[in-house]
């Protein structure tokens, strides 16, 4: 970038940092191009695109930075006000971004957040006319509506998860005196968590599925095998990162991480981070649609072709893609696991050893087993 002035159409897109919290950098993401840039910040429409394509349009987004205290929104000034106005827009917004210095820095990479390009501090910011999403605008105007309820209502009305996360990050929801900006990384996970918890409550009221199922998806050299068991709701997510990948750059063998929850949920943050909640949302969407419950294990191999992190959206959309496919059905857990073993490169025993739920299903005796033997 050779100029301190950037004029372009923001998708719309904003980024709220977390370093130095509660005093963080906030501001818009703006590409130096005009026209319809909607795709630049709508991960729901990225599935199937190559890594090169995603990096190409995301790296064009210049980040404008303005220091703000997340708790002091009422009198934070023009730049924060315009950043929030942008976040609520329903379509690309023309922006003139006047920076203090020429943008610099390499592409920003994080396994939670989609990448973006260079950054610089903002001197001034001007927006053309913005048009807000009517549902988001209504939630923003209701200063007595709790943030959790606003997120649930918008989702039920068909607002995309990405757009809810964006508005959530700029403090657009909640009781007026409690509103605050939320770092983008945290807002992504918070919305996935809020929505999936609400769906879990519904799932637990439905009858169990009647067979063992496996759903599959492959994208960006990530291989997902989603195992559903005909048991009451429990959930587990396990990731295996190959040597040379983001979280295992210098290892000699795959590294595995995992977390799980039982019927009562969990009280601590998952070790594997936002991916846990993104996948939980995707599987619950399927179960609610079918009005069934199950014990679910989401198993992921991140293979060497996954050369850089592109954000937690990849997990959510990969699992959503799996849930759209007809499942493979099996009469026994042993047959289902044999199928998974043929799909993965990591030996099945390592997955079983890492998994709390699969181990429990294989080795824990149940009272129904006793009745089955008596009946025989």
Itemize the secondary structure elements and their pairings.
Layout: E1 5-10, E2 14-16, E3 23-30, H1 51-58, E4 62-69, H2 78-87, E5 93-99, E6 119-127, H3 134-141, H4 147-156, H5 161-169, H6 184-203, E7 212-219, E8 222-229, E9 234-241, E10 255-261, H7 274-290, E11 295-302, H8 313-324, E12 328-330, H9 333-343, H10 348-354, H11 356-363, H12 367-375
Parallel strand pairs: 4-6, 9-11
Antiparallel strand pairs: 1-5, 2-3, 3-4, 5-6, 7-8, 7-12, 8-11, 9-10
Task: For the structure shown, list the relevant keywords.
single chain; six-stranded mixed β-sheet; alpha+beta; 2 domains; 34% helix; 376 residues
Describe what this molecule looks like in 3D:
The chain has 376 residues and is an alpha+beta fold. It folds into 2 domains: 5-191, no CATH class; 212-368, no CATH class. The chain contains 12 helices and 12 strands. Helix 4 (147-156) crosses helix 6. It is globular. The relative contact order is 0.13.
Number of domains: 2
SS element count, helices: 12
The pLDDT mean sits at 94
Largest sheet, in brief, is:
6 strands, mixed
**Strands across the major sheet, in which order?**
1-5-6-4-3-2
Which structural class fits the helix and strand makeup?
A: alpha+beta
The percentage of residues in β strands lies in 15-25%
- Radius of gyration, whole Å: 22 Å
Taken from the alpha-carbon principal axes, the silhouette is globular
Order of helices and strands: EEEHEHEEHHHHEEEEHEHEHHHH
From the N-terminal CA to the C-terminal CA, the straight-line distance is 76 Å
Helix content: 25-40%
Low-confidence sequence ranges: 370-376
Number of strands: 12
């Amino acid at each position: 970038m050779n100029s301190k002035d950037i004029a372009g159409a923001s998708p719309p897109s904003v980024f709220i940092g977390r370093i130095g919290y509660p005093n963080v950098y906030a501001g818009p993401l703006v590409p130096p191009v005009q026209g319809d840039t909607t795709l630049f910040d709508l991960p729901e429409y990225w599935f199937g695109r190559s890594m090169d394509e995603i990096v190409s349009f995301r790296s064009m987004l210049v980040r404008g930075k303005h220091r703000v205290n997340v708790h002091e929104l009422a009198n934070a000034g023009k730049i924060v006000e315009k950043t929030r106005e942008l976040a609520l827009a329903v379509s690309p917004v023309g922006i003139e971004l006047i920076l203090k210095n020429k943008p610099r820095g390499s592409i920003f990479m994080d396994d939670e957040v989609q990448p973006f390009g260079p950054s610089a501090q903002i001197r001034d910011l001007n927006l053309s006319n913005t048009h807000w999403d009517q549902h988001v605008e209504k939630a923003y105007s209701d200063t007595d509506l709790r943030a959790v309820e606003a997120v649930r209502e918008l989702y039920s009305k068909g607002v995309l998860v990405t757009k809810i996360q964006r508005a959530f990050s700029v403090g657009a929801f909640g009781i007026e005196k409690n509103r605050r900006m939320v770092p983008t990384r945290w807002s992504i996970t918070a919305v996935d968590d809020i929505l999936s918890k609400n769906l879990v409550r519904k799932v637990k009221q439905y009858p169990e599925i009647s067979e063992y199922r496996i759903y599959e998806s492959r994208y960006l050299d990530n291989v997902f095998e989603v195992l559903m068991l005909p048991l009451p709701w429990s959930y587990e997510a396990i990731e295996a990162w190959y040597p040379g990948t983001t979280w295992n750059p210098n290892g000699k063998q795959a590294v595995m991480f995992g977390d799980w929850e039982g019927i009562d949920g969990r009280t601590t943050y998952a070790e594997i981070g936002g991916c846990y909640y993104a996948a939980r949302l995707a599987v619950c969407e399927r179960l609610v649609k079918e009005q069934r419950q199950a014990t679910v294990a989401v198993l992921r191999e991140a293979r060497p072709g996954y050369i850089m992190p592109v954000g937690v959206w990849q997990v959510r959309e990969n699992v959503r893609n799996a849930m759209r496919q007809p499942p493979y059905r099996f009469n026994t857990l042993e047959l289902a696991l044999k199928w998974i073993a043929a799909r993965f490169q990591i030996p099945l025993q390592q997955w079983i050893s890492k998994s709390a739920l699969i181990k429990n299903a294989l080795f824990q005796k149940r009272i129904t087993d006793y009745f089955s033997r008596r009946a025989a």
